[in-house]
Amino acid sequence: MEIPDEDIKLFLESLRSASNYDFSNYSVNSLKRRLRKLLTDNHLDITHLVQKIEEDWAFMEKVVKSITVTTTEFFRDPSIWLSLKENIFPLYSGRKKVSIWIAGCSTGQEVYSLMILLSEAGLLNKTELFATDINTDVLKVAERGIYKYRFNKDYLTNFDEVINHGKTGKKMIPYSKYFEVDEQRDTITMGADLTRRPLYRKTDLVRDENPFDKEFDIIICRNVIIYFNYELQNKVLNTFYHRLNSEGWLLLGIHESIIGTYSSYFEKKFHLYKKR
Known about the structure:
alpha/beta
């Protein structure tokens, strides 16, 4: 199904008029894919979709959640986590407090991966951890810390690649140190010491420029700005730049980069961007 630009414009205008959400600076191709799926899944044409958005608040929220991407996994791209472990965390070993913000945290696998890594580095107990997403449904999943085993089991190998990197035999860290795997019940349940730590908050990166009244040592926002156009990427990068401490670090997705205006504001090192 081809989605004309007029339909995209009408769709975006209806969301803006019915809510505070503004997706006008999202990638057009990404929006077209999601609008196509919305129309197909709900058996609607654009006229009736817009009408339903304007008349049904619950449906409008459902539409917003369908636009945002919620794909994540444990220790996604192990080389990135190894870089944090080996190059970044040692810089904070002498600090009394570390503040980290995960923006676009989705269902939380990345939040728990980070906490496990911080624990192994001896930094968890002095880290303030903040996690945000625009989607309240995924935040509830993250807060509970309970996942489907069958869906996530293939990603558990990432745990060994990162946490047990170079370890053998008795030196290897077992999963049970941080979470319980129950194959019969099809669950992975994160330990209470982890679930109680992060502060979760619903945040729209497009309009909420200061979700917390503080600055951060590290900001992690992976596989989010890839769905934004250049103008919106710069707006979000501006937020990150001003929310980072001096010489703070920004971690983006492996296929994301800083180009244009803000490329001079950061120096790329160890797969991350250091604030200049």
